[in-house]
Amino acid sequence: MANHTFSGKTVGVVEPQTLKLNLPPEGFRLEKGGVLPEIHVAYERCGMLTTSCDNVIFLCHALTGDAHAAGIRPGETKPSGWWEGMIGSGRGIDTDYYHVVCANILGGCKGTTGPSSINPATGRPYGSTFPPFTVGDIVTIQRLFLQQIGIQRLAAVVGGSFGGMQALEWAIRFPDAVDRSLVIASAASLNSQALAFDIIGRRAIVEDPDWQGGDYYNTGRAPVHGLAQARKLGHITYLSQAMMDDKFGREKRPEWLQADDAFHAESKRMFRTYFQVESYLQYQGEKFTARFDANSYLHITHAMDEYDLAERFNSLETAFKPIRARLLVVALSGDWLFTPEQSTDIVKALLHEDKRVTYCHLEAPAGHDAFLTDIDELHRIVHAFLPWVGAPQSSANVAKPALAEYDVILGMVPPKSRVLDLGCGDGTLLTRLERDRQARGTGVEIDVGCMIRATDAGHDVLLEDIDDGLAMIPDNTFDVAVLGETLQVMRRPRFVMRQILRVAREAIVTFPNFGYGPVRAQLLLQGRMPKRGPLPFEWYDTPNIHLFTLRDFLLLCQDEGLSVKDVCALPGGFCSRLLLGLGAKNFAAERVVARVGRKA
Asked: Any catalytic annotation for residue 383?
C-alpha cells in the first residue's frame, strides 16, 4: 500500500475540551490499589450527534497519541490529526454518519491527568508519586467520561496498536455498551521481543541522571536523553526491515560527510556514523522529547506490557466469553511488533466462543505504522464494517447457473445452521442463506474487493486464502461448510476436504464436471482441452489446476471414508436433462452439487 490522499472532506475546526470527572469523595481507586482524588480528561469530538446518541464512535489512541485524531485546531491553518485520512466526510469513519470522540488516556501528558499533572494534595506535579494503573483503569475512566457527557452506548470503539488493546478491553469489560469493536494491528498481549524493546526503553529513561527519580518537574532538567533513546528504540519497531531498506539503505547523509573537521572529530569521539538511518532516528528522538513526558512514557508502556488477557482469564477463550459486540480484527503483513499470528490467535479464540468476527490480513510492507500512514484498503474495510453506511448487495446480477446452484444449496442447508462459505465473493449466497434459511454465516475470501463488498452487506468474513482461513478455525465450529466452484483450483484438494470436515460437520461442494458429455466430445473430436460453460478458460490461463469428474469426486469421498448424503447433477441443456432422467449423472451433469459428511 502507498500513501493516499482520500476523497472527502476534513472535519474542519475542532475544539480541545477538558472535563473534570464526577468522582466519589474518596476519589477513583485504581486496580493496583492507588487512588486519584480527581481526574481531568482532555478530549475532542466531531461529526453530528443524533438526538438518540446512537451514532457515537470512540477512538482509542496508541501509546504516544492524544485526543487530536482529526481536524484543525484553533490557530492552525491545516489539519493535523494523527488519523486525518481515516476521519471525515466520505472517509473510513464517515462524519456524515458518525459522531467521533477521542480522549487522551489516563497517565498521558496531553491534558488528561498524568504524572505531570498537579496533585491537589500538594500543589505540585505528581512526579514519582503518581500511582501505577492498568489498561482496565484507562478504559473504565473512558467509560465514566462518556457517561458524564451523556453517551451510554457506542456504535463502535476503534483502536490501533495499544489502542487496539483498549478496544478489546472495552468489548470485554462493558459488553452491553459496545456494538462493534475494531482491533487494528494489535494483540491480546505483547510478545517477548516487544517487551524487550519496552524494557530497554524504560531503562534508558530511569538511568538518565536527569530523571531524578521521577521528580524532575520545575528543576530545569528533564531526562530528554533517555526519552530520546527510548523513542529511537520504539521507532525501529514501527517500521519493517523492507521499509527501512527502501527508505534508508546504507545511504549516508551528504551534509555530514561535508561538515568541518570539528564535526568529524566529535563524530569519531562519540562513535557516530554518517548513515541516513542514524540521522533519522536522532531527528525522531529530538522531536519526541519536545512533545512527550518521560514519566508518562514509563507508566503507559508499563501498563501496556502488563496487559495479558490469557494470563488474567487463564485463556483467551475465557476472556472473550462476555463479548457481545461484533469485532473487526486487522493484521498487517509487515508488522513485527504486533504480528499477524497474534491477530489470528484473537480470531481463533473468538470463533471458539461463537463470537461474530471479521478478519483482514492486509499487505502492508511499511510495517506497524502502516495503520496510520498507508491506509487505502484499511479505510475501505473500516467504512464497510461500520453499521448503516453500506447496503446489502443484491443478487440480481448473479449469473443464472449460479442462482440455480444457490437454490440447490439452500435446499441442502438445514434451517438456522451455522454456515461457512468458502470463497464467499460479495456475500450473495450468505445473504440468501441468512434471509431464506435463517442461517448464521461466515465467509472466507481471498480478494479484498469482494471481502469489502461482503462486509458491507453485513457479513462476517475472514480475508485469507482457504488454507490459512481454515487453519484459524477451531474444530466443529460450523454445521455446514459450502465450497462453491473452488475445489478444482485448490493446490491440495484432499487436504482441503479434510480441513473442511474438521471445522464443519457437513460440506456442500459444487464443481464443474469434467465428465460432462460435450467436454468429452471436444476432447475426442478436437483433441483440445475444453473451453465452454463452467470451464471458460484457455488451458494455459486457467485457475483450474485439478479438473475431475463426478465419479472422481465420489471415489475421493470413498477413499477418505466420507458419507455422500446427496448429489444434485445440474444439466447443461435439454439433452442433458433427458440423460439425467436415465441416471447418467457423470455424463449428463455440467455442474455438480454434493453434500458430504463424516461417517459416524
From this structure: no
335 part of the active site: yes
Q: Which of 299, 361, 368, 379 is catalytic?
A: 368
Cα(226)–Cα(202) distance, rounded to whole angstroms?
Answer: 8
Residue carrying C-alpha cell 465473493: 425
Task: Count the residues in the chain.
Answer: 600
Q: What's the rounded Cα separation, in Å, for the pair 14 and 67?
A: 11
**Contacts with 570 (C-beta within 8 Å, 6 or more apart), sequence order:** 401, 404, 405, 408, 589, 590, 591, 592, 593
Helix (H, G, I), strand (E, B) or coil at 29: strand
- Grid-cell match 483440445, residue found: 528
Q: Which of 362, 357, 360 is nearest to 327 (CA)?
A: 357
Q: Which residues pair with 181 in a beta bridge?
A: 157, 327
Tell me what pLDDT residue 544 has.
Answer: 80
Out of 94, 179, 208, 335, the active site residue is: 335
**Of 116, 117, 161, 240, which residue is the catalytic one?**
161
* The three three-digit cell numbers of residue 483, written as one number: 465450497
Mean pLDDT (the chain, rounded): 92
Q: Which of 255, 80, 62 is nearest to 159 (CA)?
A: 62
Q: How much is the pTM?
A: 0.92
Higher-pLDDT residue of 259, 38: 38
240 is catalytic: no
In the chain, the amino acid numbered 54 is D
Taking only the tens place, the pLDDT of each residue in 306-342 is 999 999 999 999 999 999 999 999 999 999 999 999 9
- Residues forming beta bridges with residue 422, ordered by sequence position: 444, 483
386-422 burial, b at 16+ Cβ within 10 Å, e below that, comes to beebbebbebeebeeebeebbebbbebbeeebbbbbb
Confidence of residue 387 (pLDDT cuts 50, 70, 90): confident
- pLDDT tier at 402, thresholds 50, 70, 90: low
